[in-house]
Amino acid sequence: MSYKFMRLLIMFDLPMNTKSEQREYREFRQFLLENGFLMLQYSIYTRICTNQTMADNYIKKIEKVLPSDGAIRGLIITEKQYEKMKIFLGQKSKVESIITDKKLIVF
After folding, report:
1. What are residue 74's phi and psi, to 5 degrees?
2. Chain Cα centroid distance, residue 95
3. Which region holds residue 90: left if phi is over 0, alpha if psi is between -120 and 50, else beta?
4. d(CA 45, CA 70)
5. Can you give the pLDDT of all 107 residues of the chain as single tens digits?
6. The domain 6-98: what is its CATH number?
7. Residues 58, 49: contact at Cβ < 8 Å?
8. How far apart are alpha carbons 85 and 56 in whole angstroms?
9. What is the pLDDT of residue 102?
10. Is 37 exposed, middle or buried (0-12, 13-18, 19+ CB in 10 A)?
11. What angle do CA 81, 85, 87 make, to 5 degrees?
12. Within 10 Å of residue 8's Cβ, how many Cβ atoms?
C-alpha cells in the first residue's frame, strides 16, 4: 500500500489573562501533544499523517476540544510542500530535524 504523507499544521493564539483561560490553553496544548503533534514554533504544532483521511480525522478531534475563546487555524499540506518550507531566520529544531516521513522514532 502506498501512502501520500501529509502534514497537519495547527496554529493558535489563545488568551491567557485569567486562570480559566490559562487552564484552557494548557489543556489544548496537552491535547495536541498527546495526539502526536510536535511544536514547530510557539503556538504552531505539526503532525505527520499517512493520508488525507487521517488528517481529516485529527481535525474532527480538534474541533471537539476547542477552547471557548481565541483563534485556531488548521492547514493540511503534502510532505513535499512541507519540505520546501523556507526558514528565513533561525534553524530547524532537533526534533524537527529527525522527524520525517522516512524515519520511525520510538520513545
Report:
1. -125, 145
2. 13
3. left
4. 16
5. 556 899 999 999 999 999 999 999 999 999 999 999 999 999 999 999 999 999 999 999 999 999 999 999 999 999 999 999 898 988 887 767 666 655 544 44
6. 3.30.70.240
7. yes
8. 22
9. 56
10. buried
11. 175
12. 24
Predicted local distance difference test score (pLDDT) of residue 40 = 92
Nine cell digits for residue 94: 532537533
**Structure-block grid coordinates of residue 31:** 491535547
Provide the residue ranges of all domains of the chain, joining segments of one domain with +.
Answer: 6-98
Q: Name residue 27's amino acid.
A: E
C-alpha cell at 45: 504544532
Compute the distance between CA of residue 24 and CA of residue 30 in angstroms, rounded to an integer.
10
Cell of 74: 488548521
